[in-house]
Amino acid sequence: MQKMKATLILENGMTFAGRSIGSGEERICEMVFNTSMTGYQEILTDPSYAGQGIVMSYPLIGNYGVNHEDNESFRPWAEAFIVRHLARRGSNFRCEDGLDSYLKQFNITGIEGVDTRALTRILRSQGTMNGMITCAEHFSVPECLERIRAYRVEGTVERVTRREAQVYPAAGERRLRVALMDYGVKENMIRCLQNRGCEVTVFPARTPAEAVLSGGFDGVMLSNGPGDPADNVEIITEVRKLYESELPLFAVCLGHQLLALATGAETRKMRFGHRGGNHPVKDLEHGRAYITSQNHGYVVTAESVDPAVAEVSHINVNEGSVEGLRYRRPNCFTVQFHPEAAPGPMDTEYLFDRFVDSMKGGRAHA
Q1: CA gap 61, 85 in Å, rounded
Q2: If pLDDT is split at 50, 70 and 90, which confidence band does 283 have?
Q3: Which residue in 20, 94, 277, 326 has the fewest CB atoms around it within 10 Å?
Q4: Catalytic choice (192, 253, 274, 296)
Q5: According to the model, what pLDDT value does residue 341 have?
Q6: What does UniProt list as catalytic (predicted)?
Q7: Binding site annotation covers 295?
Q8: What average pLDDT does this structure show over 63-80?
Q9: Is 298 one of the annotated binding-site residues?
């Protein structure tokens, strides 16, 4: 079957011709690139991509199809998907469906036939920018640019968080109870805690701190999520209360940024962000470097961190940005990267062990 023509228009006025995949609906979103060679299904279903179109720099995508087991949430959250070549057939014994059908099922607009490596270089040199994918044969670029430039990623945490609290039992004997704040949590983050004997209660993003602190939990975890952390003013207020409780506290990605903001530090938008499965990070305490999986466009600024409150514990080896903070108050640490995303494949899961160890001195549960 011949594919419909599609056009990608960038905020800087550049256009790329290709073929439509997935939904044929016109879509405006923030265009970002991901350097991973595999894991496209986990990327699509990562809630941190809400409001964004994903450019995959690796040229062949969809070659092993999709299956229900690899989803990181109940649906994909990306707005659009841009690839060089989409495999028409998934070749894997676990394959349940093709990627094109999957994109159509969840109304995700896509385009193939684009030189995604050239597109990645543009986004890297000029910075992340908005874009539009359209299947219209005739369109006015100036009119499209006006709409593209007016777009802003906002309200995404509210969109991706669950509406009601949900309890996940421990895998095996329950030793600890963890409250996990859902700002866009990935399923494997929950599993990493379950596998360490934790019963995990996942709370909606706007749950008052008092409701969490009265639940008799041994520790609190703040999850990853999408968007500008500074937009979450009310959530930051509640995070501050969780911090002041002195319960063991571990935060990842957006949660790391929210806790930094709650304790007086600042964040800034990065030129093109870190998105991929091979970002080197150095643990300053142990002098070791780890390969990490990352997905973020904002970062905590090192100079804004009050040394009386916290110290930088991890840095990005490539450019020195903040990748982790260790707080002065007991049993509180955060990281920017994703230890649950199996880089290495388990190089950074020691952070979950550290969190569990920090809770073992807490109250016992039957």
Answers
A1: 6
A2: very high
A3: 94
A4: 253
A5: 81
A6: 253, 338, 340
A7: yes
A8: 96
A9: yes
198 is catalytic: no
Which residue's entry shows tokens 């100036």?
A: 142
Q: What pLDDT does residue 344 have?
A: 66
Q: What pairing do the DSSP bridges indicate for beta strands 27-34 and 129-134?
A: antiparallel
Cα separation, 236 vs 318, in Å, equals 30
- Residue 136 tokens, joined: 């219209």
103 is in an annotated binding site: no
Cβ distance 234 to 258 under 8 Å? no
Active site residue 246: no
Q: Considering the candidates 30, 42, 323, 340, report the single residue annotated as catalytic.
A: 340
| pLDDT for position 346 | 74
Query: Residue 131: beta bridge partners?
Result: 10, 29
Residue 186 has what pLDDT?
Answer: 97
- CA-CA distance, 134 to 126, in Å (whole number)? 22
Residue 225 assigned ligand-binding role: yes
Phi, psi of 356 (to 5 degrees): -60, -40
Q: What's the maximum distance between 2 C-alpha atoms anywhere in the chain?
A: 67
Domains of the chain and CATH, by start:
5-153 (3.50.30.20), 160-359 (3.40.50.880)
| Residue 297 in marked binding region | yes
Distance (Å, whole) CA 318 – CA 337: 14
CA distance 202 to 167: 6
- Report the pLDDT value the prediction gives residue 296, as an integer from 0 to 100: 97
Backbone angles phi, psi at 106, to 5 degrees: -105, 15
Q: For the residues of 249-311, what is the DSSP string, one character each?
A: EEEETHHHHHHHHHTT--EEEEEEEEEEEEEEEEETTTTEEEEEEEEEEEEE-GGGS-TTTEE
Please check the confidence at residue 366 and state whether its pLDDT lies above 70: no
Question: Which of 10, 227, 230, 245 has its CA nearest to residue 115?
Answer: 10
Residue 2's pLDDT is 64
Mean pLDDT score of the chain: 95
Rounded alpha-carbon distances, angstroms, from residue 289 to 36, 278, 295, 345, 347: 19, 12, 18, 14, 10
Please provide the DSSP assignment of 173-218 as one string.
Answer: S--EEEEEEESS--HHHHHHHHTTTEEEEEEETT--HHHHHTT--S
Burial of 78 (0-12, 13-18, 19+ CB in 10 A): buried
Specify whether 314 is catalytic: no
